[in-house]
TrEMBL record:
One Gene Ontology molecular-function label: undecaprenyl-phosphate 4-deoxy-4-formamido-L-arabinose transferase activity
Pfam families xrefs: Glycos_transf_2
Keywords: Cell membrane, Glycosyltransferase, Lipopolysaccharide biosynthesis, Membrane, Transferase, Transmembrane, Transmembrane helix
Entries under InterPro entries matching the protein: Glyco_trans_2-like, Glycosyltransferase_2, Nucleotide-diphossugar_trans
EC number in record: 2.4.-.-
GO cellular component: plasma membrane
Gene Ontology biological-process annotations: lipopolysaccharide biosynthetic process
Domain Glycosyltransferase 2-like: from-to ranges: 5-135
Keyword Cell membrane among UniProt keywords: yes
Name of the protein in its database record: Glycosyltransferase, group 2 family protein
Length: 317
């Protein structure tokens, strides 16, 4: 009998984890074709999430809990969970119930011989307008930078073959970008429509700063296209500046036109060009800084503790 591994990054989810794990357990047992394990990764929120994970572990020995030493982000939490899976198929889903576990076999059963990863797609998403905008930016970025198929929607709810996960965890970059690792590992994807549920508790933990960090990880981890764009922009503005200088000289010498002082327009143009220049330098600095942190062996995550294999917590906090 094959084993399914469920990996759930947890952040402020003490109130929802019991329902999510119960639905997983009931759905797998009702199907009868698979065994299961559930890996809950506590990304160190300041609430009772870890205590709840320890309690759930005592109720179900198929649950394994990991507690990070601090908040490393969803991608790092997933990577920590992936390094502890034993299953033939790995299913990633959220901790808030918006990715319904009852629909898992629609993803798993769609994984035929020509498919390695099956993503859920949502005809209607129950996220805020800000979060939906962030998802669209992320989708555009994955298409442009990493060669993701344009018609593929990449969600946090997906099922992947074990060899894909094994390939993904070879990445020890301190700034992991899970979608990019999947695209780099295979070209055999599929989408299955799933109903996106309302949140039963709390609100999304994604802030603008966290979304910006996610976008930067995608921008810098898998492509040098942003640097090439910066180069092209520099060439274009240099050409425009040269042509403008030629026009000014021609008007002054040949047409004997008086050149207006135009200090306001000059200052505006200088500030614009300086802003673009600083943005390009910042982009280059981001690449260099991340290279330095990678060479300095900055950790992708640090595990503070885990639950014991026998079903009792090693430590509680």
């Amino acid at each position: 009998m094959q084993l399914l591994s469920f990996v759930i990054p947890c952040y402020h989810s003490a109130a929802t984890l019991a329902a999510v794990t119960r639905q997983i357990r009931e759905t797998v047992r009702a199907d009868g074709r698979y065994q299961y394990e559930i890996i809950l990764v506590n990304d160190n929120p300041a609430d009772d999430t870890w205590r709840e994970i320890c309690r759930l572990k005592q109720e179900d020995p198929q649950i394994f809990g990991i507690c990070m030493s601090r908040n490393f982000g969803q991608a790092s939490a997933l990577m920590a969970g992936y390094r502890h899976v034993h299953g033939d198929i790995v299913v990633s889903l959220d901790d808030d119930g918006q990715t319904p576990p009852a629909e898992m076999f629609r993803l798993i059963d769609a994984m035929d011989e020509d498919t390695d990863v099956v993503y859920a797609s949502y005809p209607s998403k129950h996220h805020s307008a800000f979060r939906n905008f962030g998802s669209k930016v992320n989708d555009w970025m994955a298409t442009w930078l990493m060669g993701k198929p344009k018609d593929l929607y990449m969600a946090s709810y997906y099922a992947a073959r074990r060899f894909i996960i094994d390939e993904m965890v070879k990445c020890d970059n301190p700034f992991p970008y899970v979608d990019g690792l999947a695209v780099r590992s295979t070209c055999r994807f599929k989408n299955i429509p799933i109903d996106h549920q309302d949140r039963t508790e709390g609100e999304s933990g994604y802030t603008f700063a966290k979304l910006l960090r996610l976008w930067l990880n995608g921008f810098t981890a898998f492509s040098v296209k942003p640097l090439r764009v910066a180069t092209v922009m520099g060439m274009v503005f240099s050409l425009v500046g040269f042509l403008f200088a030629v026009i000014v000289v021609v008007r002054k010498i040949i047409l004997l036109d008086a050149i207006d002082a135009g200090w306001s327009s000059i200052v505006a143009i200088v500030l614009l060009l300086d802003g673009i220049l600083m943005m390009m330098l910042g982009l280059v600095g981001e690449y260099v800084g991340r290279m330095y942190m990678t060479m300095n062996k900055s950790p992708q995550y640090v595990i503070r503790t885990t639950t014991a294999a026998a079903g009792t917590p090693e430590t509680e906090q």
